[in-house]
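Sequence in, structure out. First:
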Amino acid sequence: MRALIFLAVLLCGWPVLASERCDVQAPTFKVELGEVQLAYQSIGRASDPVLLMVMGLGGQLIHWPDEVVARLCEQGFRVIRFDNRDVGLSSWVQAAPPANLAYEALRYRLGLSVSAPYRLRDMAGDALGLMDALGVRQFHVLGASMGGMIAQHLADLVPARVQSLTLIMTSSGAQGLPAPSPALLALLAEREAPSREVAVEQQADLLAALGSPLVSDDRQALLQQAETAYDRAFNPEGVQRQLLAILAESSRVELLNRLQVPTLVVHGTADPLLPAMHGVHVAAHIQGSALKLIPGLAHRFQEAFKEPLLAAVLPHLKANHRDGHWARL
C-alpha cells in the first residue's frame, strides 16, 4: 500500500516538477561578446541538451510563445532564447542606417549590392559566441524567418556542433522566389512614430497583415502584444539595420548545398511575407532535409497553429535527441 501511495505521489508530482524546471519567467541575463552584449534567457536544467531559438526581424525573445517554449522544455531540453543585436535588451549598434531604405531595397531587387552595418553571418557569430560563453559544445537550433537565415549560417559555421536544424517560415534568399506585396513591405519598413500610441498601432497593423486569412485576430490582443514589446524595448533604427543585413545577403544556395545537418523545414501555405515556395526551395537544397507544409499558417505564431507547429517540430527533435534522455522529467 505504501508503495502504491508513493508511486501515486511521484506520478502526480511530475507535472509540478516539470513546471518548476520549465519556468518561462526565468531571469534574463546578459553576456559580453566583444563589442556586442546579448540578453538571453535559459529555461530548463543545465544538464539537458540545449535548444537555441533564434528570432526573426525585429523580434525579441518574448516573441517566442511561452507555451511553446515550456512544451519544448518539458520534452527534456534546456531552451535558450535571446535578443539579437539591435533589438530588445541586447546591444544597439550606433551606426545609422542609410537614409533611404527604399533605395537600398530597389538595389536588392535589381541584383545590385546593398550596404549594411553588419551581415547575417555576423549575427550567427553572436549566437555562436553565446553558446561559447555558456560553455555549450553541442546544441540544436530552431530559427524563424530571419532567425532561420541566421541558423543556416550557424550550421555552416560549426556543422559538428549543431545536432539538428529546424527552419520555420524562412528563405534561401535566392533571386526569383515570390516576393511579398509592396503594401506589406511598406508596413514592415514603417518605423517612424511620433508617439507610443502611433508605434503600437503600426505594430498591430503589421501583426494583422502577417496573420493567416483563416484566423480572425482580436485587435485588442494585437495591441497588447505590441504594447508589451514597445515597453520592453523600441529601436526602429535597429530593425532597419537588421533588414539591411537581410538585403545585403546574396543567395545562400551554395551554403545550403553543403549542409549535412539533420534539418526540418516548416512553412505555411498562407505566408504573405515569404510565400511557401521559399520553404520548398530551402528544403530542396539541404541534403536529406524534411519539409512540412502547414495549411493556413502565415508568418506569425498564432494560437490556432501552435499545436500543428509542435506536431511538426517535436518528432524531428526527438529523432535527433542523441543522448537518450528524451522527455526525461
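Second:
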Amino acid sequence: MTMVKDVDARGTQHCETSALGVLLRHQGMDLSEPMLFGLGSGLSFVYWDAKNMDFPFLGGRVKPFELTENLAARLGLELVVQETGSPRRAWENVAAVIDAGRPVGLQLDSYHLDYFGTKVRFGGHVVAMYGYDDHDAYLVDTDQQGGAVSTSLTSLAEARAARGPMTARHRSFTLTVPGNPPALQDRIVPAVTACADAFLDPPIANLGHRGIEKTGKLVRTWLQRAGDPRRDLPQAALLMEKAGTGGALFRNLYRDFLAECAELLDSGHLRTGHRLYAEAAALWTEVAALIAKAGESGDAQCLDQAGAVLRDLSRVEREAMRALSRLGE
C-alpha cells in the first residue's frame, strides 16, 4: 500500500472545491470552501437543453475545471495538468505523484465509481487521490459521498477513460503553492469583478441573468417536456439542492464567500452583493421546492409560481452583480 502522509481528507460540499482543498491543505494553505469557490470565480448559470437530453439541466457554476484554472491564476499557483489517451500512461502519471508523497487531482465520470449510490453520468466530477494498493484507490470526495472513500482500480480506470459530455482525457493535475502567496485581500476584487462581468454580459441567452430569466419562461412547460414528470422534476430539484451544489444551486456558497470577503474588505458594494445573494439563495431553494412539488402532484400552478420566482431571481442577481462589478472602482 502506498499512501501520502498528512492528508487532511476532509470532504466538503462541492467536488472540485473538495479536491482543491485537499491539495492545498497538504501544502499548508487552508482556505474555506466558499473562499475557494469565490476566488475561482465559480458562480454562473446555464440552462442546457438538447434533443438528445431526456430533460433540461440547470447549472449554477462555471464549466468543470475552469474554477481550478481561475483559482490557480488568481493565487499564483503552479498548475500542472496531464492528459493522455493511454490508460497505462494515465496510471503512471498518477502513481508517480503519489509515490513522490503528494495527493493528485483527477477529473473523471462519477458513474463508474463504486461508492456512488446514485448512478448518474457526469464527466466533470473531480476527486483527490492520496493512495493505492493492489486492488483499490483511496480518494477524497464530497462529504455527501463519504469524504475519504475507496474504489477499485478497475472502476477508477473506467471512470477516467469515459467519454462524453464534459469528460477529459484521463486528466490529472497538481497544484504547487508559491513561497510568498499573494494576500487574499488583493485577490478578492479581481475574482469578484470577473465573475460579475461574465454574469452580466453572457454571450448567449442561456447564460447568466439572461439564462435565469429564460428559465422562468420555460419552466412553465416542464410537465409537458418531461418523459416522466414524477421522476424528472423531483430529480431536477434534487440536483439543484443536493448534488454537490452546497444548496440553492451554489448560491449558498457564493453568499458565504461574500460574507468572508466583507470581513476582509470594507465595501458597501460588497455588503450589497452579500445581502442580495442571501436573498437569492433563499429564492433558489423555494424554486427547487416548487419544481419538486409540481412533479409529485402534477400541478402546473407550481411551475407558474416557480417561473415568477425565477423572474425575480434574474432581477435580484443582476442587481447583486451590478453592485459587485463596481467593487474595483
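Remark: Residues 184-325 form one domain.
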